[in-house]
Design goal:
Keywords: Amino-acid biosynthesis, Cytoplasm, Isomerase, Lysine biosynthesis. The protein is α+β, with helices and mostly antiparallel strands. It is built from five helices and 17 strands. It has two domains: about 130 residues, Diaminopimelate Epimerase, Chain A, domain 1; about 100 residues, Diaminopimelate Epimerase, Chain A, domain 1. It is globular and about 50 Å long. Bound molecules: the ligand N[C@@H](CCC[C@H](N)C(=O)O)C(=O)O.
């Protein structure tokens, strides 16, 4: 049972096809519980989403965000939902620069030439920070395919392939997500080089499965490709749901891409009482 006895209004948004429910809890207590996230995240029983993002107040930032996966687990980062919510708050306030807090700490969003860029923070390349189950060279993880491990506030395992199109995404993604190398499981990205600083990426998300895009995954993939000498630090990535751009600066990894507000709807108190 959720703590909310009231109907719950939410927005459905897409960030390059990454599918979100956004709940605005500014000015009240947070409502999301693992049971609510799992119940709503179920595409048959509930509403369906890749992630639920709950917006709430923060004393030191313009707003704060919590992220939940469709399986009811939490995530420390979600780049595409961060872009979507920053876009909403910029539209609401008319501001072109915002601060926001996630589990990663205080981050920033800026509007440049009509596009919202978010700073996802510095990439983490120490095995403890990703985290891995033991000391490893994160640039060459001991798994078939020689992937790179990168933390963006959440774990990522990036495979540099000749043809991301040909990868058995579900089968490999699921297996790597649950590999004992990753004590908190992992997101899994498969990338291939399309041109200079241009990557194709397909993704399997921890707690959500195959998705059309993943913002933190795009950041991790761009970092992995740059560290392996495949690209520079500014990269365009083509995902199944659209194009994301990543710019790895000294102050953090910046991300932008398309945002869509799809609809607003209300979940009934009756349904919430079943969770
Ligand atoms: N879609 C996201 C990442 C969501 C979190 C992930 N599934 C996890 O568990 O870490 C993005 O845009 O970054």
């Amino acid at each position: 049972m959720t703590p909310s006895a009231e109907p719950l209004t939410f927005r459905k948004m897409h960030g390059a096809g990454n599918d979100f429910v956004v709940i605005d809890s500014r000015g009240r207590s947070r409502v999301t519980t693992p049971a609510l996230a799992k119940g709503l995240g179920d595409r048959h029983r509930g509403v369906g989403f890749d992630q639920l993002a709950e917006l709430h107040d923060d004393p030191e930032a313009d707003f704060a965000l919590d992220f939940w996966n469709a399986d009811g687990t939490t995530a420390g980062a979600c780049g595409n939902a961060t872009r979507c919510v920053a876009w909403l708050v910029m539209r609401e306030t008319g501001r072109d620069r915002l601060t926001l807090r996630t589990e990663r700490g205080l981050l920033e969003a800026v509007l440049r030439n009509g596009r919202v860029w978010v700073n996802m923070g510095a990439p983490l390349t120490d095995w403890r920070e990703i985290p891995l189950s033991g000391p490893q060279d994160t640039l060459h993880l001991p798994l078939p395919g020689d992937p790179v491990g990168v933390g963006m506030g959440n774990p990522h395992c990036v495979f540099l392939t000749h043809d991301a199109e040909g990868v058995a995404l579900e089968e490999q993604g699921r297996a790597v997500e649950h590999d004992p190398l990753f004590p908190e499981r992992t997101n899994v990205e498969f990338i291939s080089l399309l041109g200079k600083d241009h990557l194709r990426m397909r993704v399997w998300e921890r707690g959500a499965g195959v998705t059309l895009a993943c913002g933190s995954g795009a950041c991790a993939a761009a970092v992995a490709a740059a560290l392996r000498g495949l690209t520079g630090r500014q990269v365009v990535l083509d995902l199944d749901g659209g194009r994301l751009e990543v710019d790895w600066q000294d102050n953090g990894v910046w991300l932008t891409g398309p945002v869509a507000e799809v609809f607003t709807a209300t979940i009934t108190a009756d349904f919430l009482a079943t969770l």
